[in-house]
Specification:
Elements (H helix, E strand, L loop, with lengths): L7 H25 L2 H54 L5 H82 L4 H13 L6 E5 L2 E2 L8 H9 L12 E3 L1 H16 L4
Parallel strand pairs: 1-3
Antiparallel strand pairs: 1-2
Helix pairs in contact: 1-3, 1-6, 2-3
Length: about 260
């Protein structure tokens, strides 16, 4: 037995059903809004700050270790000076005395240079400490914001996830009932128009959401449901108000269990 041919009216009804479901999914995504992106941006920023904090702490530790080495070098130079001064007390000639004096002066220069480096390193250390504190505070602040945003997002997802899954299953099921060429055209229109409405009803003599009046003869042709007609201005597929109302009523139970 030959497979029963699908009428244009059936095609229009199926397309409009898919549009109703896709519009509902769009509505849920609009409710979610920018929260997923905001959460991701906050997570990325915190991750970057944690990386910076780790680097700052490493630099701080290196600076502290450098200060310890400088202080140790000063103590060693002071010990050397004491040792050379004691040796001067028992030298046998001026040459030995002058040589020890040279060593003392060298160690004193080392001390002067080390003290200068300690002052400079201490300034850098304080700067590192300040940067670490500021970074930690910023991480804490952003962490608080992330917690709030994540909580908001989790709440919305918990409320809408079940409906999204149910709607997507239904949309996939309906899509299999639409011939590929028509389904491709529908998706192209949806991608092109700003509100995702590829199939619209006539409203007050114009296509829904448009101010361009559709000629009366054209409206009669649309109401006859004998061929698929697109709006000349927007390119959207048009259906008559009666068909739209019937399909909305038919699809209402699908949305009844969810209130968004």
């Amino acid at each position: 037995m030959a497979e029963k041919e699908i009428t244009v009216e059936q095609k229009l009804r199926t397309l409009y059903d898919l549009q109703l479901i896709d519009s509902r999914i769009d509505q849920i995504r609009a409710i979610q809004g920018e929260l997923p992106l905001e959460v991701q941006d906050l997570e990325d920023e915190i991750e970057g700050l944690n990386t910076r904090l780790g680097r700052l702490r490493e630099e701080y530790q290196k600076a502290e270790d450098g200060l310890k080495d400088l202080r140790k070098a000063i103590l060693e130079s002071k010990d050397a000076i004491i040792r050379y001064e004691n040796q001067q007390k028992s030298v046998r000639n001026n040459r030995e005395y002058d040589a020890l004096t040279g060593e003392i002066e060298y160690e004193e220069l080392n001390i002067t240079h080390a003290e200068k480096m300690i002052r400079e390193a201490s300034i850098k250390l304080e700067a590192h400490k300040s940067n670490i504190a500021a970074t930690e505070e910023k991480i804490q602040t952003l962490g608080g914001k992330l917690s709030v945003k994540q909580s908001e997002l989790d709440g919305i997802l918990a409320e809408t996830q079940r409906e999204m899954e149910s709607l997507q299953v239904k949309a996939d099921e309906i899509s299999t009932q639409i011939e590929p060429r028509l389904l491709t055209a529908y998706r192209k229109i949806r991608a092109r128009v700003h509100n995702g409405l590829a199939v619209v009803s006539i409203d007050r003599g114009a296509s829904e959401g448009s101010y361009f009046t559709i000629p009366a003869q054209r409206q009669i042709e649309i109401a006859m449901r004998k061929k698929i007609i697109a709006d000349e201005n927007s390119g959207r597929i048009l259906v008559d108000p009666a068909l739209a109302a019937e399909e909305k009523e038919k699809m209402a139970p699908l949305f009844a269990d969810f209130d968004i």
